[in-house]
Amino acid sequence: MAIYENKVNEINNIEQYIDFNAIKVTDSKLNDYEDFKEILYLSNTTTELVISNGDGVSQGNNIYLNKKRAKGVIITAGDVKIDGNVNFEGTIISKGKVIVKDGTVATLSSNKKVVDYIVAKNYEKFTGVFKNDSANGTSNIEVDAAAVIANKIQSIPKENIIKTGNWRLVK
Q1: What is the number of structural domains in the chain?
Q2: Does residue 53 carry a pLDDT above 80?
């Protein structure tokens, strides 16, 4: 096993940004699409999550991609183990380690649009998870209107997620 070492931005204390206590139960939600699998996985336990490109039925902390690409948001207090040639877009936030099994090729790509879309689509599950204060900055979530209509995303109270400022009236 190899521990993923290519860090974009190293964060020494993830709990400065994520409130794991706000995750009340382990929540694993998978949506199967023609060419990819959408993953939402939230857990405050140290149980290892295994993502495999092999065939199988996903249950609990074992996700099988059945040779599809993955797009998702994973936030866990445990380790994340990548088994097989996995192509993942989105974000993996782990209090533990991200481990790639030897002999496999994993492509892990950060994708803000995927993250924003999944957070907006599942907003109630993220309430209180992201710590948002002036020291950590703020993030605006933009979601394509077609995606909102297609997935019947309900309106989200903007004060809970979006900071506005610098408005001016143009006549």
Answers
A1: 1
A2: yes
Look up the pTM and report it.
0.75
- Expressed as residue numbers, the domain containing 47 is 13-160
In a domain, 8, yes or no: no
In a domain, 3, yes or no: no
Residue 7 falls inside a structural domain: no
Give the rounded distance of the alpha carbon of 56 from its chain centre: 22
pLDDT the model gives residue 133 = 47
- SS3 string, the chain, reads CEECCCCCCCCCCHHHCECHHHCCCCEEEEEECCCEEEEEEEECCCCCEEEECCCCCCECCEEECCCCEEEEEEEECCCEEEECCCEEEEEEEECCCEEECCCCCCEEEECHHHHHHHHHHCHHHHCCCECCCCCCCCCCCCCCHHHHHHHCCCCCCHHHCCCCCCCCCCC
Dump pLDDT digits (tens) for 104-158: 889 999 999 999 999 989 988 998 998 864 444 445 555 555 555 555 444 444 4
